[in-house]
From TrEMBL:
InterPro entries: PPIase_dom_sf, PPIase_PpiC, PrsA_foldase, Trigger_fact/SurA_dom_sf. Gene3D superfamilies: 1.10.8.1040, 3.10.50.40. This is peptidylprolyl isomerase. GO terms for molecular function: peptidyl-prolyl cis-trans isomerase activity. Residues 133-224 form the PpiC domain. SUPFAM superfamilies: FKBP-like, Triger factor/SurA peptide-binding domain-like. Keywords: Isomerase, Rotamase, Signal. Its EC number is 5.2.1.8.
């Protein structure tokens, strides 16, 4: 494939904005009388760098050639009038709809951003919610029948086997090689009936009867119990801000629904 390149030195100068006489509107390359500007190149380069690419000669060259290829394909699409083809027109309409929707939501959240105070308040509420919550280190063996599960409990109590051996036959293949250990969990991570027996158990206790779930019968032992280690504000603030932003946007959409005159044609379902 033929690559059209300006000098690597010029690309580097443009990419690092070192030359005062180079303007964003300047043409970096012309493709069949269509100009690709410095601004277009810089924007595409910035997008690649944000995605993890290095700002080096190879990336700069690849970006420029991608812009050239894009323009060649766009020109061909226009020449063949593909935008009027029904399937393409539908895709273009859908893409435009998505772009405009994102623009509206971005504009709203720019004018109504989630504040640091809102993030801190949400963190404090979360910390209060988890203040008295405990975490449980649990291991289990999942079996098909209640009979098998009861027999395993007897064997564990009588020291005829242990979880390391028993887990090899567990239907939960993800934990077969670590003694059935599923790590630390808060009660809400479990099915309600599992949470009930786990939270009632003592440290090191083997649950006396199997616990049934849609997956089968669980033989459960609570290895350890500790207070929930609440992550710091610094660790959670990004996630909290994202959640609050989503909630604020959903509330905004709900308000638009309430203000709009929406009528469903019930006759279509008859």
């Amino acid at each position: 494939m033929k690559k059209i390149l300006c000098s690597m030195g010029l690309l580097a100068v443009i990419a690092t904005a070192q030359a005062a006489d180079i303007k964003p509107t300047d043409t970096i390359v012309t493709v069949d009388k269509v100009n690709i500007t410095v601004a277009q190149f810089q924007k595409a380069l910035d997008d690649n760098i944000k995605a993890g690419a290095k700002n080096d000669a190879a990336t700069q060259s690849a970006v420029l050639n991608d812009l050239i290829s894009q323009q060649l394909l766009l020109s061909l699409a226009k020449k063949e009038n593909l935008a009027t083809r029904p399937d393409v027109a539908t895709q273009l309409e859908n893409a435009q709809t998505q772009i405009l929707m994102r623009a509206v939501l971005n504009d709203y959240i720019t004018k109504n951003p989630v504040t640091d105070e809102e993030v801190k308040k949400a963190y404090d509420q979360l910390a209060q919610q988890y203040k008295d919550v405990k975490q449980y280190s649990v291991r289990h063996v999942l079996l098909k029948t209640e009979k098998e599960a009861n027999q395993l409990i007897k064997d564990l109590k009588r020291k005829r086997t242990n979880f390391d051996k028993a887990a090899k036959k567990s239907l939960d293949t993800a934990n077969q090689n670590n003694g059935g250990n599923i790590g630390w969990h808060v009660p809400t991570d479990f099915a309600p009936n599992v949470a009930k027996v786990v939270t009632a158990a003592k440290k090191g206790e083997l649950i006396a009867t199997p616990v049934e779930t849609p997956s089968g019968y669980h033989v459960i032992q609570v290895d350890n119990i500790r207070p929930f280690p609440m992550p710091s504000y610094e660790q959670l603030q990004g996630e909290i801000r994202t959640t609050l932003t989503r909630d604020k946007l959903n509330a905004y959409i709900d308000s638009l629904r309430k203000e709009a005159n929406i009528k469903v044609n019930e006759a279509l379902g008859k």
